[in-house]
Specification:
- With 476 residues, the protein is α+β, with helices and mostly antiparallel strands.
- Among the domains are: 158 residues, 3-Layer(bba) Sandwich (FAD/NAD(P)-binding domain); 109 residues, Guanine Nucleotide Dissociation Inhibitor, domain 1.
- It has 14 helices and 18 strands.
- The protein has a 7-stranded mixed beta sheet with strand order 6-5-14-15-16-13-17. A 3-stranded antiparallel beta sheet has the order 9-10-11, with no helix packed on it.
- A hairpin with a 2-residue loop joins strand 2 and strand 3.
- Helix 2 crosses helix 3 and helix 3 packs across helix 7.
- The longest helix has 21 residues.
- The protein is globular and about 65 Å long.
- It starts with 8 loop residues before the first strand and ends with a helix.
- Bound molecules: flavin-adenine dinucleotide.
- The site of flavin-adenine dinucleotide has 31 residues, from strand 9, strand 13 and helix 14.
- Flavin-adenine dinucleotide (FAD) binds next to strand 9, strand 13 and helix 14.
Length: 476
C-alpha cells in the first residue's frame, strides 16, 4: 500500500512487530515464538523483489542438511537429506522401486506448485469467475483437487514410514492428509526440492527485514495500540479507536485492512449488524490445530540432536483423530522439537541449547491449566531423553509454556487456534472467509484466516492479494 503511494499506519497490540512470529529473549536464550520452518524461499524472494529488494539485503539464509530428523517407533530414526539423490537412495533402501516413483510423484508435485503458487494462491477468492482460466480448467485433473493427499501418496508408495513422511508437510496447512486436497502435494515439492532453510539470527530476521523495509517505505508503526472499536457510518468504516497506555486514541482512514484474527475483528470490533459471518458460521469452520508449546533453555549442548526433529514415535492416526474428530487432549501425542542453537551460535549462551517443543492439539479445549501443561511436558521430556540418549530435564535453566489461553489473550485467537483455518476442500479459495467485508465497503481482511491460508508464505501472499484488491477498488 505504501509503495502505491498510500499513507499507511499500522496499529499493533504488542510492543514489537511479528505477531505469531514474535521473538522471546530471556536469560541469554533467543526463541522464535511461532514459525520455525523456512520453506518456499521463492515466496520470500518474490516479496522483497516486489519492492526492488532481495532477501539478502535484509538477512542471510543457509540450507539445512539434513533437512530434518524423524524419530519412528522403536529405536529407529531417519535423517532426511537435503540432497535429492541421497533422498532417493534412502527411499530405495526402504522400499525397492520407490526412488523412481519419487521422481514421478515430484514431477506432478512440481506442476501443482507451479500452478498453485503462481496462479491459484494469488486469486482473491471474491468470485468463481477468477478461476475461469483456460490453463486452470484444462489442468484441473492434473491438479487433483478432488482426491486426498493420503490417497495420492498411497498410490505411489506402500511403506508406512514413506507415506507418513510425505503426509507430514500438509500438516502445515492445518488438516490431516486424508482431508487435504491432493493439490497440496505441492508441499512435497516445497519440502524436497525447495528445501528447509534457516535465516541467520532466526525466523525473527524475516520480521526485522519486513519492518525495516516498511519503515523505508514510510509506513508508520503504532505499537502498544490495541484496537477496541471500528466505528461505522453508512456502511463505511470511519474511525478506529485504539487503547494506548490506558488512553483511547482515534484514527481515521479511507480504508481499513484487518490483519488481526478475522473472527476477532468481526465479533469484537464492529457492530453485530455489520458482520459478514455469524457465530454459527464460525463454529462450523474446521480450524487448524492449537499448540502446546514449551521454550526451554539448557545449560549444556546435545550433540545427538538435529535442528528440526519430528517425534513420530506414536500413532499419527490416533493423535489426528484427537485433534479433529474427538477434540480431546491427546493420550500419547506426536511432537516436534526445534533447536536453532544447533545451527546458530547467537541464539543461546555459549555451551547451551535453546529448545522449542510443540504438541499440536485440538482448538477450543478447556482446562488449559499449569498442571496439565506440566503433565504433557514430563511426558514428552521422558520420550525426548530416551531418544536423545542422555538426561535433559536436570539441565533446564529456563522454561516457559505457551498454549490456548495465551493464544487467546495475546492474539485474540478464535478458539485458541495457532495456525488459523484448515485448508480443506470446503475451505479453499472462494469458500474461505472473504478478504473484503460483504457489508462494510472499505473494510478488508488479510492473514491466515482468509485467502490463501495458514503459514508465513501464504500470509505474505495474503497481504499482496488484498493490497491489490484495495488499489483496484480505490483509484483516487
Ligand atoms: C507455534 C506456531 C508455529 C508455526 N510454525 C510455522 C512454520 O514453521 N512455518 C510457517 O511458515 N508458518 C508457521 N506458523 C504459521 C505462521 O506463523 C502464521 O500463519 C502467520 O505468522 C500468521 O500471520 P498473520 O499475520 O495472519 O497473523 P498474526 O501473526 O497473528 O498477526 C496478527 C496481528 O494482529 C495483532 N492484533 C490482534 N488483535 C489486535 C487488536 N485488537 N489491535 C491491534 N492489534 C491486534 C496481533 O498482536 C498480531 O500481531 C506457525 C504458527 C504458530 C503459532
Amino acid at each position: 500500500m505504501a509503495k502505491a503511494g498510500w499513507q499507511v499506519i499500522v496499529l499493533e497490540k504488542h510492543h514489537t512487530p511479528g505477531g505469531r512470529a514474535r521473538q522471546l529473549s530471556a536469560d541469554g536464550f533467543v526463541f522464535d515464538m511461532g514459525p520455525s520452518w523456512y520453506w518456499m524461499p521463492d515466496v520470500f524472494e518474490h516479496f522483497f523483489n516486489s519492492f526492488g529488494k532481495k532477501v539478502s539485503d535484509y538477512y542471510q539464509l543457509k540450507r539445512l542438511d539434513p533437512s530434518y530428523r524423524v524419530y519412528w517407533p522403536g529405536n529407529e530414526a531417519m535423517d532426511v537429506p537435503a540432497d535429492y539423490e541421497a533422498l532417493k537412495h534412502l527411499f530405495e533402501s526402504i522400499e525397492p522401486g520407490s526412488g523412481a516413483r519419487l521422481d514421478q510423484f515430484l514431477k506432478e508435485a512440481a506442476y501443482k506448485y507451479e500452478v498453485g503458487i503462481n496462479k491459484l494462491v494469488f486469486k482473491p477468492g471474491q468470485s468463481l469467475s477468477e478461476f475461469l482460466d483456460i490453463d486452470l480448467i484444462t489442468g484441473i485433473l492434473k491438479l487433483d483437487v478432488f482426491n486426498s493427499v493420503s490417497k495420492h501418496v498411497s498410490k505411489y508408495f506402500q511403506d508406512a514410514r514413506i507415506r507418513q513422511l510425505l503426509g507430514f508437510p500438509v500438516l502445515f496447512l492445518g488438516a490431516l492428509p486424508q482431508k487435504t486436497p491432493a493439490l497440496y502435494s505441492l508441499m512435497n515439492y516445497a519440502d524436497i526440492k525447495g528445501g528447509t532453510w534457516y535465516p541467520e539470527g532466526g525466523m525473527y530476521s524475516i520480521v526485522n527485514g519486513m519492518h525495516q523495509l516498511a519503515l523505508e517505505l514510510g509506513v508508520q508503526f503504532c505499537f502498544d495500540h490495541e484496537v477496541q472499536e471500528i466505528s461505522i457510518e453508512k456502511n463505511t468504516a470511519k474511525n478506529i479507536i485504539a487503547k494506548h497506555s490506558g488512553e483511547l486514541r482515534t484514527f481515521s482512514a479511507d480504508v481499513v485492512i484487518g490483519g488481526a484474527d478475522y473472527h476477532h475483528i468481526e465479533s469484537a470490533l464492529i457492530p453485530e449488524a455489520y458482520r459478514s459471518y455469524s457465530e454459527d458460521y464460525w463454529d462450523k469452520r474446521v480450524m487448524a490445530p492449537g499448540c502446546l508449546i514449551y521454550y526451554v533453555g539448557l545449560n549444556k549442548k546435545l550433540p545427538n540432536l538435529q535442528h528440526h526433529s519430528l517425534f513420530f514415535d506414536t500413532s499419527f492416526d490416533v493423535h489426528g483423530r484427537e485433534i479433529y474428530e474427538t477434540k480431546q487432549w491427546p493420550a500419547n501425542p506426536l511432537f516436534y522439537v526445534c533447536a536453532s542453537s544447533v545451527s546458530d551460535d547467537t541464539v543461546a549462551p555459549e555451551g547451551c541449547e535453546n529448545l522449542f517443543f510443540l504438541i499440536p492439539v485440538a482448538t477450543g479445549l478447556s482446562n488449559d491449566s499449569e498442571a496439565l501443561r506440566n503433565y504433557y511436558f514430563d511426558m514428552i521430556m521422558e520420550r525426548f531423553e530416551q531418544r536423545i540418549g542422555e538426561p535433559v530435564a536436570e539441565n533446564i535453566v529456563y522454561k516457559k509454556s505457551f498454549a490456548h489461553s495465551d493464544f487467546v489473550s495475546e492474539y485474540h485467537s478464535f478458539k485458541g487456534n495457532a495456525y488459523g483455518l484448515a485448508n480443506t476442500l470446503w475451505q479453499t479459495a472462494i469458500l474461505k472467509p472473504a478478504c473484503r467485508s460483504k457489508k462494510i465497503k472499505n473494510l478488508f481482511f488479510t492473514g491466515q484466516l482468509t485467502v490463501p491460508g495458514p503459514g508465513v508464505p501464504p500470509s505474505l501472499i495474503s497481504g499482496e492479494v488484498v493490497s491489490r484488491e484495495v488499489i483496484k477498488s480505490y483509484q483516487f
